[in-house]
């Protein structure tokens, strides 16, 4: 029997990304390395414009790096087809953004179960999963409400539930409570941390809030296009 441990859910190896502008190439990331272990919650704290969103987009396979490699569960994603990358995003990665991006014409339950349906689950299974997740975020009785009928905190709870619908191994979040008031932000963030820890998910969470960052397992920042300990 092999004693080799499983590969980490996410590993960025020397990833670089630049953008073409009228003034020429703009390097954002030059050689960024980052590994997330299962069950680890990492805070990404860096000033605006230093590449936080770019790093998250690369980690989530929304963009391809100009150099380096992104490994998801040990699988190098750089040479995969767009369809294969989409399948990995759907099955392995959950996303939470500052703004919930819920579909306004659908109920809270439908917003969550649609993610499960897209992964090929039967509707009965998707519905049961959606109800379980919404209940875990204290949204019993709110399943049939549309986003416009929910408070900001409730909307973000639905968005987090949607991100967890397909039982991802990785959660990427960009200022997930940045649009909420302080009290609601603290409460929703606590629920997010509990949900991630209870499921053993590897999480990378970008935040400007040092008190929220301090509640995570470690904090990293970006300096000269690289990931460094904060």
Layout of strands and helices, then pairs:
Elements: E1 10-21, E2 24-36, E3 41-44, H1 52-59, E4 67-72, E5 75-76, H2 82-92, E6 93-96, H3 108-118, H4 123-136, H5 152-163, E7 170-174, H6 182-199, E8 202-206, H7 210-213, E9 218-223, E10 226-229
Parallel strand pairs: 3-8, 3-9, 6-7, 7-8
Antiparallel strand pairs: 1-2, 1-4, 4-5, 9-10
Helix pairs in contact: 3-4, 3-5, 5-6
Overview of the structural elements:
With 230 residues, the protein is an alpha/beta fold. It has a domain at 10-103 and 167-229: P-loop containing nucleotide triphosphate hydrolases (Rossmann fold), CATH 3.40.50.300. Strand 7, helix 6 and strand 8 (202-206) form a beta-alpha-beta unit. Helix 3 (108-118) packs across helix 4, helix 3 packs parallel to helix 5 and helix 5 packs parallel to helix 6. The protein is 34% helix and 27% strand. The strands form 2 sheets. It has a 6-stranded mixed sheet with strand order 6-7-8-3-9-10. A 4-stranded antiparallel sheet has the order 2-1-4-5, covered by helices on one side.
